[in-house]
Amino acid sequence: MSRFVDQLTATVLSDGGGKRGMTTGEPHDPVRTTWAEVHERARRVAGGLTSDGLRPGGAVGVLAAAPALIAPTVQAVWLAGGSVTMLHQPTPRTDLAEWASDTLTVLRMIGSDLVLLGDPFDQLAPVLEENGIGYRMINDLFDAEPLGEAVTVGEDELALMQLTSGSTAEPKAVKITHRNLFSNLSAMAERAGLDPDGDTMVSWLPLFHDMGMVGFLTVPMTFGIELVKVTPVEFLSGPLLWPDLISRYRGTVTAAPNFAYAIAGKRLARVGGDDAAYDLSSLRIALNGAEPIDPEAVRTFTDAGARFGLDAGAMFPAYGLAEATLAVSFAPLGAGMVVDVIDPDALEADNRAVPVAEDDPRRGTDKVRAFAVLGRPLRDLEAQIVAVDGTVLGEREVGEIRLRGDAVTPGYLTVDGPLDTQDADGWFATGDLGYLVDGQIVICGRGKDVIIMGGRNIYPTDVERAAQAVSGVRAGNAIAVRIDAGTRRERYAVVLESTLAGTDEERTLAKEVTARVTDAVGVRPFSVLVLSPGSLPKTPSGKVKRAATASTYANEIDKAST
Known about the structure:
Elements: H1 3-13, H2 15-19, E1 21-24, E2 31-34, H3 35-51, E3 59-63, H4 67-79, E4 83-86, H5 96-110, E5 115-117, H6 125-130, E6 135-137, H7 138-141, E7 158-163, E8 172-177, H8 178-191, E9 200-203, H9 210-223, E10 226-229, H10 232-237, H11 241-249, E11 253-255, H12 258-269, E12 285-288, H13 295-306, E13 315-320, E14 327-330, E15 339-342, H14 344-350, E16 369-372, E17 376-377, E18 381-386, E19 399-405, E20 411-414, E21 417-420, E22 428-437, E23 440-446, E24 451-453, E25 456-458, H15 460-468, E26 478-483, E27 491-497, H16 506-521, E28 528-531, H17 546-552, H18 554-560
């Protein structure tokens, strides 16, 4: 067996496997299942899969949202020697015929003709049948004869194919091998100091996203750590459920993107009365792996959480991407969020990160740039910064981040076939722009999103933070998009969501955003387009799509400039 499956089975068969497990069903119907019980269910599902003809190396699509079903299902696929692909989930607004067509495209791409279907998507069985998509109900497989021994697989066999957050009509899957998975899981557990006897992980992150699947299901399942798992719908329906679960279960490890820390922080700040309403004193790691991290969103959470015992040192900035399995670097434990404050002119004109002195009067204003320091690469990973021509850059020189190591994917699967990701020396070009400070990684943004005007590199996150600081703009729902990218006429626009869209106050809001953004980055936006809530195109994991927004609203962006 691979080291990953060896570790997984050793954990569930140990004393810890019978003592620790996962709690699902919060807040209405909590149920706790030990990792040993999850394993027994997985053995039955694996037995059913092998009886149905799943062969070593076979690819299986999984479509379910309930963590209680997903955990034994993905483990079963690994025990049976197959690879897992979590399929894109339809929403109430999804065109099911289009979704089925896209799903067929994904299944052909990964070489699979089988979907394991579970709650709440089991009602889609007729849609799959109508489109000739083979499926099995997960609940039916729980009655199968258990698999005896795990199927032997090599380190370089695929364990996971993580769909990227691009267009569902033109999918791409990151190939994650057993070697990749074991390397990254082990390095994360080591750097985070995970303790099966003392840690409890709390998460609402989606399991079709790498942070949810790898970080907050596979890690605790592999090392036997207590887990409290709810769905994104439950968090979004009541964001204070998150700190409530941390309080009641004495959670020590959690994670979320920028927008969630901002939302939870604002809700905590409005809690009246008893300071003991929540107890966040147990939390030692609150990971944020969004790149780049928004320091204001983090401060919103830490400032509000301090009243309830949150230690600001628990904030745990990280850099991660699916192409490195999950995590690339972690900040030092207990250090909290350390921000590197740099001169914007040197960054935009010369691609240099020149630090701003502590006593510089520009600190605390929009006249500087501030980026979170994300720590050193994990064990068995290397990072370097390179210029456009491939020259390796030095300390505080900004360029593209390249990675090399055991956790780095060997390539993608695309609709046009496999695609290698590494060069002859094993380096993977991430497309992220950043620099190194004392060997620690700092992210500035995505290379493809940087706006180039008058010889300056304007980072969209600077524009977006300024826009979101204006009252009336929905948190996490303002984006900067490039117009006429790569030409002499390159410009940018701001597209945002607000409940003021279509009202008499819309024009005033657009003017305030224009002024705030212009003051922050020194260049006036071509236009500011105000949309109603829920209008911005987003990835399945909830990230706003800049390119899709620019194309979808091209005419409206143009009209908004008049």
